[in-house]
Design brief:
Largest sheet: none
Number of helices: 11
Number of domains: 1
Helix content: 55-70%
Shape: globular
Structural class: mainly alpha
Distance between the termini: 37 Å
CATH class: Mainly Alpha
Order of helices and strands: HHHHHHHHHHH
Oligomer: single chain
Number of strands: 0
Strand content: under 5%
Radius of gyration: 17 Å
CATH topology: TorD-like
Length: 213
Amino acid sequence: MTDPNAVIRQAAAMLLGYPDRDWYARLPLIGAAVADLRPGPARRSLGDFLEYTARTSELDLGAHYVRTFDLKRRRALHLTYYTDGDTRRRGHALARVKEVYASCGWTADAAELPDHLAVVLEFTARGDREQGERLLEAFQPGIELLRGALRECASPYADVLDAVAQTLPPPDQARREAARLAASGPPAEDVGRDPYGASPVPLGMPVPMGGAR
């Protein structure tokens, strides 16, 4: 029997990609998978977003995507941005996420950073569910912050985040942490993401199989 949470997360992962030609080619498959879900909030939210894509031109949808997911507006799809900003610490966090994937035999798309929400969702849906769940829960405050920001700007992408939220534990604690992050803003440091691949530091993330290094 298909896990409905896996279907929701895989659909959300696909929908959170940039709406290019391949993205549009996958829409019928996503629509069929969503239609097969049991009626409920997640199915309704994904259905609402799919209806939005059907009535929106490709040009307008692409422009909305670029306008919406902007780091400066705290609507980042890269989840370590919320906790680590553009600091050296973020490089360690990215390396740790990549370690989790590697420990499960999962190879993420090299064109995207491993903390992109779509990548984490796909890993949870198709890779290792247990490790993916732990990653999503570790990132839940950032997900809630993004979800709230999308609601605030009335973006249809909020529906996709609402569906994702339905697959996670009650977000009370995550919302409190999200409020703290929103108040303080992401850390700032003019060092970029280097050193990407450096030794991991404790981040409250899953420990890769074999233990921490």
